[in-house]
Each structure stands twice: as C-alpha cells, then as structure tokens.
C-alpha cells in the first residue's frame, strides 16, 4: 500500500476514534466500579502514559484515571487555521491561567503560567517543541536522587525516550530544501506519540542560522541523542502526514481501539485528597481517594487495591498532598489541616525557565524573502492557499509549522571566560551555608531543605562548568512580527526556588504560586553573561550586512552591570511554561518527597509520576521528558505488581 496510502487509512481510523469520547469515559460516580487496582489522579501527559501501559500490561487489573477537565475533541496545533500568526487560535482547549505572586528581585514582576486543563494535560496546549535535555542533565538528576536501586541517568532514561515516540524522517525534497538532519539511532521506538519535522520554514530562518555560525556555534546532526551543545534542529510533536498535534489524549487514550474494558477515565472531577483511614496512618496503604464532582458538587471516595498514583502536575500534585495532610507541618498547621506526614519539600523547589530578549531593527530593506509571517496577516490570498494546503493529504505549507524547530544551546564556558567565578560563587554559598538565605522564608531554616538545596547547587555548578552541557537556549523562527527582530535568552538551570501552596482562604481553589525569580543573585549574573553573549550577533558579517541596529539592551546599558541588571529585570519573560520540581526525587533527609521508586517517603501505596518529581530543570522543554518518565514509571510499577 505504501506509506502515504497506509497513513490515510490510519488517519481515518484515528479521526473516528478521536471524534467521540470512548465508551470508558465516565462522568458520574454511579458509572464506576466498587474498587480499582490502580487509581491515577490526573489525566495529563504522565498520567495517561501510565494508565495506557498498565492496562495494556495487566488486562485483568483495573485502572481509574480521575481528570479535572474533559475530553478535548479537537486539539489544534500551536499554529493551525484560522490564526494568522498574530492572533491566537479562537476557542482553544481550556487551560488554567496562573499569575504568580510578584517577584521582588525581578522588579516585582509576575510569572504568567498556562497549564492544560483536559484529557492530555499540557500536551494538548503546549508549543509542540519536542526536545530532550542533554545526557549531563539526567546524569546530574541521578547524582542527587538519593538512595535506591532505580537509575534515572541518561543511560536509564534513553530507552524510554525512544519507546515513547514514533519519529518519521522528512521526505527527501524537504530535506534538500531545509537541510534537516537527524540520527535514527536516537529514536527507533514505535510509541503512540508522533514526532516529525514540518515541510515548511519561514524564508528568513537561514539569516540567524548563518549569524550563529559566524559566532562560532556549530551545527549538531542530532540533538536528541544526549549531546546538544550547538545549533539544533528540534522536531515537533506532530503527525508526519497531517502535521496535526500529537498528544497524550490521543496517543494514550482516544486512539486505543477498541477501548480496554479495564480502563476507566472519570472526567470533570477534582481529586481532593488521599485518606489513610487505617489507625497506622500512612504506614498502612494504599489510601482511598476523596473526589468531588464538578457538575453537582457531590463528594465521594474511591478505593485502590494496589496503588494510588498522583499525576496532577507541578501545581496540583503538591496541593493534593497538602490537603491530605502531607507537607510542611508548619504550613499545614496554618491551614488548619491535621498533619499526617511532615514532608517539608512538598510544594517547595519550584523552578521554571525565564529570560530577557535581545532586540534589534534592520536598516537595510528586509526584502527578498518569501514567505514571511507578515504574509499570513497582510495577504488574504496567501492565507487562503495556506489553509487549503494544510487540509491536503499530506499537509503542506505554513500551517504545518507549529512553534518552530530551531534553537541554539550553549554552555556557560562557551558564553563567558568568567564562568569559573560564577561556579565558585555557587560552590562557596553551598559550602558556607549562605545559600539558605535565598530560600523561601517559611522553609529556609529547615535542615532537610537546606541539605537538598546544597546538593542541587553543587550539581548545577558542575553542569555549568561543563563545556558540553548547555546553560543557554535561544529558539528562533523568524525575525518578523509579532515577535519582531529579537532572540530570547533562556536560563536553563536557575538557582532561585519558589513554592506552591494551598490558598488558605479556599483549599479547593487554585493554588498560590510564588516563583521568587531572581531570589538567588547568581541567576542575575548568568542572565548578564547570556545577554552579553547574544549581543555578539551585532558583530557578525550577516547582521552588519543587513544594517542591524540594536534596540535592547543597547551598548550603553550592556556596559554597566547595574544598568543591564535593570534591563533584565524589566524585560524578562518570567515563565517559558516549563515549571517543575515541587515534589522532588531526593532523600527525605534532603527535603525530598519521593524516592527513586517514585514512592512518597513514608506513605505506603502512594506514588507520584509527573514533572514535580524532577529535582531540578533539565536543559529542555519538558514534554518529551514527561513521556519518558511516564514510560519508565509504568514499567517500574508493572514490575512491582507482576
């Protein structure tokens, strides 16, 4: 039949499966079984991965997934019709839109964070930028993860990155047009999530690519194989024929045909807390789960015979634990919640990528490039043709593009010759204990939190000293609007730490986020080094030939640490939507919440599987890591219950 013909048949099947919620989608308690083997709280990227694999592995064991949102019938890509690149897609899937408390060390600016609210979680609404961290990130994670036999380094995670995804190379004509590169040895799996490159790039993409080369940054053939210092092509989480979004709600749920009889998904219900009713408390599990219907407000309990797995995400996992009496004792007391288990790390250790832009204008007429993003807004004929091309099989044209496929990743030693003074400062603050002053006030005196933070700082210092471990990411797509002529500076390993806490006025309301960005002053030093490095663009022959004139920060500002610091604080994008780490995998004596086995310290029959278990951020967007963690967790759980 050939690839294209088989793909058409497959797409017809998947479209039919995704258009109607599967029969195992439940909406009220009367539709549930009396008891389940596994209860998973959260139907997002990790939760659905685990549920899919467990129901596949154990046909006789029952799994219930409890999801706050609903089934998302049609999840558009980051850039799908009818948007024109400037205006967002109308009627997007529902999200939680958080605004964190102001960060005093960043000019009292607040992070705005968007999280998917529906079956598939943030995989339904993210930018589809499907990169992996470097092998050094995961090796460092394993170094601080504490005692236990399960490994979380690159060697241990790499098979699950491969298992989670089906990567399809682009066709030869597209490769020749855009010079795509890849290495199939980084993939080789046949997972339910698709990864591919689009048959389109904006015409001015090579301008920045050439300038990066002139700065001495080298192209990397494949950045998903553990090494990503350089200029990278990054695939998108999109189908290779339709170029529609590929997400967990499809791959790990709706496309399971026929629906498995042992797999139930309860939508439009909030997981309130886990309850240890046994007199022995959390030493005797698994707990039951208290659940609230969002339709009628009724509250009921569900029991698990084997385990409860919390997979509610970085913001909601810690709040479920806190409502359960699992968390920092002092905070629980202030909330009027009886302490079931004192774990100071619950809701601590919040991190995210952030950073400022470097901005310029071109004085030489920006002509000779077609198409540019402006065509989508100014050229109705072009947009109509783009829409028609997207509806073809296979899809072509601008709407196959998603959010972009290009980025540079650069290590601190390749950014600044003073990198050792930065890492020495980090090591000194860890050694002499001064780092604790930069932690959130309510936990900065807790010896376990201090010990864990010290371990993280030392690990990050080693990452920052490694010339092959990226500390800066700069993605790019075009020099045209709406972004304008600018590049962003992502700080990939921030040292500042925030918190996620219950709203004391209403425990069932959305949590309070305190990002505390910039609270560790070393972050500002790294920001300054990165901005000054990116300003080297203006010395390249490519930028000079195009008459690039710097708008921000400008030579005068960049010449002063104080002025440049003010620029960073006033202009940073406070969240690139990669929050993590609020139930970290470390020893309990270091403020950890879960062990290497993902089991909550001291809580029998309770695990956590989502991005809250990372001890610190990898140098990557988090979607592909979430799938890999879900795959590895499912295999670990299956092994325990075989």
UniProtKB/TrEMBL annotation:
Alphabetic keyword roster: Signal
Matching InterPro entries: FAD/NAD-bd_sf (IPR036188), GMC_OxRdtase (IPR012132), GMC_OxRdtase_N (IPR000172), GMC_OxRtase_C (IPR007867)
Domain Glucose-methanol-choline oxidoreductase N-terminal, residue spans: 36-353
GO molecular function, one term: flavin adenine dinucleotide binding
Signal peptide positions (record): 1-19
Domain of life: Eukaryota
Annotated GO biological process: secondary metabolite biosynthetic process
Record-annotated active site: 578 (proton donor), 621 (proton acceptor)
SUPFAM superfamilies: FAD-linked reductases, C-terminal domain, FAD/NAD(P)-binding domain
Sequence ranges assigned to domain Glucose-methanol-choline oxidoreductase C-terminal in this UniProt record: 494-630
Pfam family, one: GMC_oxred_N
Family: Belongs to the GMC oxidoreductase family.
Protein name as annotated: GMC oxidoreductase-like protein
